[in-house]
Amino acid sequence: MSEPEPESEATTTILPLFPLQTVLLPGTKLPLHIFEPRYRQLTADLVGGTVPGREFGVVALRSSLTREVRGLDQLYEVGCSTVLREAKRLPDGRFDVVTQARRRFRLRDLDCVSAPYLIASVEWVDDDPAAPSGDMAERLAAVARAAHRRYCETAWRSEDWHAPDAATTIAELAYALAADCLLPLEDRQRLLEERHPLRRLRIACRLLTREAGFLTTLGAVPLPPGELTDLSRPASLN
């Protein structure tokens, strides 16, 4: 049996946690409409500076039937932190917010009683230290970009999509390519958890090629990228 790949030296951090029925990928934006009292309080704490750096964690629920998270077994182990960038308080106390996804974490412990919202003890998850470079990485990036282009040309009725710019690094590219594509939660979670940039890019390429094939065969066209997921309501009642 092969040994597990070493992770970077772990640093444990406390993060407020927002469980959702979606997987947040690093570098992407997440708009949310906050209406539930416990998450109104979280937003107020983020805006008011109670939460350091305005950073909180988003993690996917293992079941769409979950209505109250009581333990780690109800959540995927790896999630992504996100930083509050914009917050607009509405007259009735709700918030419209925009956040920017930042870095991956692994859940270690869960506190369900100290605050109205969940609080997690997490360790940051870094990529493998060996940085991919050279001809192989460049060829794979070109193939992955071509797969993304084929997917988008098949999926969207309009030109309402864009390719990641040329400055996007190999480590970031898989996330950028998958950001506006309709992929099952489990596939997005697999991308999030993969720590080797080239393997992650290969996975993204296979997924996009597969999905483009499905769309071509079925003749189905999904909603435009801006309407992929209605996050106006959190998937959990936490």
Report how far apart the termini are.
Answer: 40 Å
Fraction of residues in helix: 25-40%
What characterizes the major β-sheet? Answer: 5 strands, mixed, barrel
- Mass-distribution shape: globular
**Approximately how much beta-strand content do the residues carry?**
15-25%
Helix tally? 5
The total strand number stands at 6
The average pLDDT score comes to 86
Topology order in helix (H) and strand (E) letters: EEHEEEEHHHH
What is the assembly state of the chains in this entry?
A: single chain
How are strands sequenced across the largest beta sheet?
1-3-4-5-6
Regions with pLDDT < 50 over 5+ consecutive residues?
Answer: 1-8, 221-238
Gyration radius, rounded = 18 Å
- Structural class of the helices, strands and pairings? alpha+beta
List keywords for this structure.
single chain; 238 residues; alpha+beta; five-stranded mixed barrel; 6 strands; 31% helix; globular; disordered N terminus
Structure description:
- Strands 1-3-4-5-6 form a 5-stranded mixed β-barrel.
- With 238 residues, it is of the alpha+beta class.
- Strand 5 and strand 6 (118-125) form a beta hairpin.
- Helix 2 (135-155) runs parallel beside helix 5 and helix 3 (170-178) packs parallel to helix 5 (197-218).
- The model is unreliable at 1-8 and 221-238 (pLDDT under 50).
- The chain has helices at 37-48, 135-155, 170-178, 185-193, 197-218, and strands spanning 12-20, 29-34, 55-60, 78-89, 95-111, 118-125.
